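Bumping my old thread because nobody answered last time. Still need a sequence for this structure:
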């Protein structure tokens, strides 16, 4: 074959043509495929010299049906190359030629095919890895629809993978977890920062919930834009179940500990009240005996003193001129003053004895040791006994005015109750009101401390209200008043059990209600609602 192509008007020399030196193989042939010229790269690729190609057709080197028109064909050297390799042949007409010649560009695709094969191999290796790990790999688009899910998904959640492709999260994620997961995905897309370890619940095909731990990161396209989300999901149901069980047990233990402390404190308080009741009853009994002895003899004392006064008067009427010795005695004892003052002295002793008897009766009524079971009791008596015991605290002292106590009893209700326990309730609430009023007076918040106790009968229940005009209880403390060990008093001034025990006595023991309403700057009212019969 000549080194020039005479059919081309401008002669092309093999030695000088820039096409001859191109790294891409090029061939010129006619419409029947007869090779008219080839460059060095082509000759090297098939292992022949240019002179050896003379008389060959392009079909001898490639499987080409025809070369008569422009085309692009992926083909393979199969006749001349030692090892066939893939090529891409592009045919174009040679415009400068007066003949019907075509120029063929043969692109070696071995590197491209090797790269594709390597990518496919990497993809296969990646799929093999992600499909054999315990976590589930997934991909979804920016709209949240799954485009790929690893096969383990079926094992964990029961759904066939194909049934979830093209679908989102709405129908399988727990409603309480849906909003947080959507917010997290939006943040990952916006910031492109991966997010790990978000816990959520996924509905199993059978209906129960599976706890999972999910991580997410963005997938970028060739231009650097976000085109999707990828991530892993790990089944943590066993761990989460254990955590929830542990949390439930911890809460139960904390509740049990609180109940134990509460019961222990209540037992201590009950034991104190029982011991106090026994002590009070014993003192009342011991005082009652000599008081009764004194009170019983005061009647005779008054009678005898009247007799003696009458005798002295009669003697003075009979003996107008007593002897000097007798007159000295009469002057010494001042008979006239004695005759006027002795009845007053006896009367004063009677008032004092009556007062002692009232105090003893109040102590006995307050202790109520003889009423361990439900019995008919008069609430008026219980409140009167409580007020009697607290009377000293109501009196004016240290420049503080007297705490005025208003009693509005209305009807006199008798109810079935544990009278001694209700007396304890009245004692706790009224004593707390006195404490609060004393603090408010010292702080200059009130000038006329006052407590009002009212009893009202409604249908089958009795309502006892105990109201003070103090500064009120803050809202944050109001909700905790009946909690065990909660107190607003300084350390050493209260245990925080008085109102808690009162609540238990009213609600648990009597089936009633104990409520507290308070307005800052106005005062506080405790309302005790008790059924008349059980």
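Sorry it took so long. Here it is:
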């Amino acid at each position: 074959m000549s080194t020039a192509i005479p059919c081309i008007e401008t002669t092309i020399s093999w030695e000088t043509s820039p096409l001859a030196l191109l790294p891409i193989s090029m061939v010129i042939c006619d419409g029947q495929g007869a090779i008219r010229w080839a460059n060095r790269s082509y000759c090297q690729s098939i292992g022949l010299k240019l002179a050896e190609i003379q008389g060959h057709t392009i079909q001898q080197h490639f499987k080409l049906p025809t070369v008569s028109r422009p085309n692009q064909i992926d083909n393979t050297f199969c006749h001349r190359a030692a090892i066939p390799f893939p090529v891409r042949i592009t045919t174009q007409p040679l415009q400068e030629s007066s003949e019907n010649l075509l120029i063929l560009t043969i692109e070696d695709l071995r590197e491209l095919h090797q790269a594709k094969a390597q990518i496919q191999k990497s993809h296969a290796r990646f799929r093999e890895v992600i499909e054999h790990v315990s976590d589930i790999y997934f991909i979804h688009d920016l709209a949240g629809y799954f485009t790929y899910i690893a096969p383990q998904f079926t094992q964990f959640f029961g759904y066939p993978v194909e049934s979830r492709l093209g679908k989102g999260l709405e129908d399988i994620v727990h409603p309480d977890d849906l909003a947080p997961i959507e917010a997290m995905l939006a943040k990952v897309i916006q910031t492109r920062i991966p997010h790990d370890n978000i816990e959520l619940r996924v509905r199993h095909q059978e209906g129960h919930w599976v706890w999972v731990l999910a991580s997410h990161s963005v997938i970028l396209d060739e231009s650097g834009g976000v085109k999707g989300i990828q991530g892993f999901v790990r089944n943590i149901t066993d761990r989460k179940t254990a955590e929830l069980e542990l949390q439930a047990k911890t809460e139960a233990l904390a509740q049990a500990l609180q109940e134990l402390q509460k019961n222990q404190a209540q037992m201590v308080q009950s034991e104190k009240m029982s011991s106090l009741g026994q002590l009070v009853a014993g003192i009342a009994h011991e005082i009652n005996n000599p008081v009764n002895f004194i009170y019983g003899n005061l009647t005779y004392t008054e009678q005898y003193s009247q007799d003696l006064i009458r005798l002295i008067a009669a003697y003075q009427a009979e003996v107008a001129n007593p002897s000097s010795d007798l007159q000295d005695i009469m002057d010494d004892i001042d008979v006239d003053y004695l005759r006027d003052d002795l009845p007053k002295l006896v009367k004063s002793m009677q008032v004092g004895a009556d007062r002692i008897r009232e105090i003893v009766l109040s102590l006995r009524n307050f202790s109520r040791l003889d009423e361990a079971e439900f019995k008919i009791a008069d609430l008026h008596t219980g409140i009167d006994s409580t007020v009697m015991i607290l009377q000293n605290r109501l009196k004016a002292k240290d420049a503080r005015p007297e705490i005025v106590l208003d009693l509005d009893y209305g009807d006199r209700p008798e109810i079935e109750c544990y009278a001694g326990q209700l007396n304890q309730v009245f004692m706790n609430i009224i004593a707390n009101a006195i404490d609060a009023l004393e603090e408010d007076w010292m702080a200059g918040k009130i000038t006329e401390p006052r407590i009002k106790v009212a009893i009202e009968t409604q249908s089958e229940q009795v309502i006892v209200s105990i109201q003070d005009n103090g500064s009120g209880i803050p809202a944050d403390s109001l909700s905790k008043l009946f909690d065990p060990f909660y107190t607003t008093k300084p350390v050493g001034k209260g245990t925080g059990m008085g109102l808690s025990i009162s609540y238990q006595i009213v609600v648990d023991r009597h089936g009633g209600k104990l409520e507290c309403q308070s307005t800052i700057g106005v005062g506080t009212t405790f309302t005790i609602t008790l059924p008349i019969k059980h």
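Confidence is low (pLDDT under 50) at residues 1-12. Let me know if any region looks off to you.
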